[in-house]
Amino acid sequence: MFSGIVEEAAKVISVEQDKGNVHITMECSFVDELKIDQSVAHNGVCLTVVKKTDKTYTVTAIQETLERSNLGGLRPGSLVNLERSMLMNGRLDGHIVQGHVDQTAVCTRVVEEEGSWRYTFQYKSDKELARKGYVTVEKGSVCVNGVSLTVCNSQQDSFEVAIIPYTHEHTNFCQIEEGTVVNIEFDIVGKYISKMMLFK
User: Which of 20, 75, 185, 193 could potentially form a cystine with 143 if both were Cys, beta carbons 3.0 to 4.6 Å apart?
Assistant: First the structure.
């Protein structure tokens, strides 16, 4: 379980194809605190640490994860938003994030607004996906590349988020531009409500 508060935008060191899987090796400032089998969110995708060195660690993404997320597009030098799992004795500063990406979205617009930025994202939407809770609501929560954000201008297949300078500088939002593919996790509460509505 995560909160969507990114700890670090870390650099990919290597990407190794292994049949249908991909092994991603990262370099980050807290690698010495990680353990084998620990869960870490990568652009919002919960992956398990499978190998460690003094300076790097490796995770494995399987085919289903690669098809549903943007991890298949990572290359050496790519920045990835990292968050370790939430401590149960702390404040929930973001919102409840599972680390289970629902789908990808494409950035269609970036506007700088005197020190902050407004991003527009478009995603695949139809009645079946909406019944699963793959929707946004005005002022609701959404997780974009692992970052907990508040939705504005919620439309049927798009939404906007406003990014403050700190988030822009400390996450990979600094690299997102028109055409960039991002990971989306919709609000789990909304997904449960949508599921229960099917039984009315």
Answer: 185
Cα 5–55–26 angle (5° rounding)?
50
The DSSP code for 157 is S
- Give the number of C-alpha atoms closer than 13 A to the C-alpha of residue 151, restricted to the C-beta side: 23
Count Cβ atoms within 10 A of the Cβ of residue 6 and give its class: 0-12 exposed, 13-18 middle, 19 or more buried. buried
Distance, CA of 23 to CA of 37 (rounded, Å): 15
Residue 24 corresponds to which tokens in the numbers above?
């991603």
Question: What is the tens place of the pLDDT at every residue in 129-171?
Answer: 999 999 999 999 999 999 999 999 999 999 999 999 999 999 9
Query: CA-CA distance, 68 to 123, in Å (whole number)?
Result: 12
Q: What is the 3-state secondary structure (H, E, C) of 35-62?
A: CCCCEEEECCEEEEEEEECCCEEEEEEC
CB contact at 8 A, 137 and 151: yes
Q: Name which of 184, 172, 179 is nearest 75 in CA terms.
A: 172
Other CB atoms within 10 A of residue 179 CB: 8
